[in-house]
Amino acid sequence: MRYISYRFLISLLFFSCKKEENLNLELRDNLLLEDGLLKIEILADSLDVPWDLAYASDDFLWLTEQGGRISRINLRNGEFETIHFVEEVWRLRTTGLLGLAVHPDFKNHPFVLVNYTVEQGENRSNKLMRFTFQNGRLESPKELLEIQANTAHNGSRIAFGPDGMIYWATGDAYVFENAQDPASLNGKILRMDLEGKIPEDNPFPDSYVWAKGFRNIQGLDFSAQGLLYSSEHGDAIEDEINLIVKGANYGWPFIEGFHDLKEEKEFAEAQSTLEPLYSWTPVIAPSGLTYYQGPIAAWNHSLLLTALKGMALRVLTLDREGKRIIGEKVYFYQRYGRLRDVAVASNGDIYISTSNQDWNPQPGFPKVGDDRILKISIANQAVLEPIVADDLASNTQLKGKELYNNYCASCHKPDGKGVSGIFPALLGNEVVEGDTEALLKLLLSGSEGTQTDQRMPSFAFLSDDQIAAITNYLYQLTIMKKEVVTPEKVAKFR
Ligand code: HEC
After folding, report:
1. Which ranges carry the Cytochrome c domain (predicted)?
2. pTM beyond 0.90
3. pLDDT tier for residue 11 given thresholds of 50, 70 and 90
4. Which residue's alpha carbon is nearest to atom 6 within ligand 1?
């Protein structure tokens, strides 16, 4: 009997290996690392903004699409299966069906958690829901928590901790004060048990709040060491990677990025805020974040980070304790477009999702077949001419066009045509055509949003030189004016 079951097991194993080999996915690229070769294949395509990917221990990849669909892909045979559609999802720009997490012990606790925005009359909220996966369906919906939502800054990510608790990263719901307000659950990382109850060892009595002072978290994951990391969108500057500590304050809206301004230092001192591990200016719009430990040696013990505006996969190498980022590499820059999320399977295969069907596609995207889920795994031989890491120069010396593309084009678009009803066109624009003084004042102080519900951020952090270069490029782009703006002129309006 024993012998037979052993043989049976072996044949099963062999069978599943063989099947995996026979997945026959379309090869998109080969990537050459310092010490190995990878292949990038297309696991799924024609999706509608696959917002969150989560690996379940029974070898399925679960995903949400922004419009409301929840699906899973069998990683052994590639089969795609729609499991559920959340009818009550309210989708607009960055609202919709967002985060998803599956219980790490899926066999015994087949819980699938999602969060999404709903709109009832004037009232907008974010719901955190728990489903139980049984009979091939998501059953027994249970609402764990409902919090304030808005047209932007809804955060989204959910993670299960090694302590068995649920961690939910929320956005400030575009009300900046929320992030520091202890009574608000926005701009926070919240912690609860599987029933949605507040654990007794949370840092503040009778509060879900685990950490506070966040603008808009888009990535959240625990490392193998049990440390919790987040990625966060900065305003016009200073995206962040944070190491999350129980009860800590991360400073938004009083602090952006490192504690480097006088007012920031004062606030940091008074409130004992923590600095990020890492920060980007110009912004890259960091999104999904996953800790990697696995057979790809060059990436072992790192954070994999997808970037939307930055259109790349960034690999952030951690030091031994996981308390510092000691290296950064950029891959696939502009190759697949905006990247929304990343997940790692137990065998070390990596999955990333594109986000080119979303509200803010970059030039040249979406392409036919977007959005996609790409599989990254070790390859034995290069079938295609291999690509390598992108050598992205440091951004300190940018001039005119580059500055505009880095700081302005994400909203007003590279051609200055804007996005109708959201970001005003700069071609044929009254402010651009009007006197230089008003334009410089706008760039130096921003605007509260009189025409749409979006703000124009202040660019006072740029040097006079940089503002002058942007303004001159803008005049070139719009062919309205020949005037040359000097740094001295900018200085006058500070
Ligand atoms: C995060 C998005 C965003 C970025 C980045 C941004 N803007 Fe704006 N901009 C806006 C919004 C929104 C408005 C409209 C503000 C309002 O209604 O008050 C605006 C307004 C303007 C206007 C006035 C147009 C009008 O019709 O009122 C100008 C000029 C302008 N921006 C130039 C720039 C330049 C130059 C940059 C780069 C240095 C830039 N913007 C970066 C969002 C942005």
Report:
1. 395-478
2. no
3. very low
4. 408
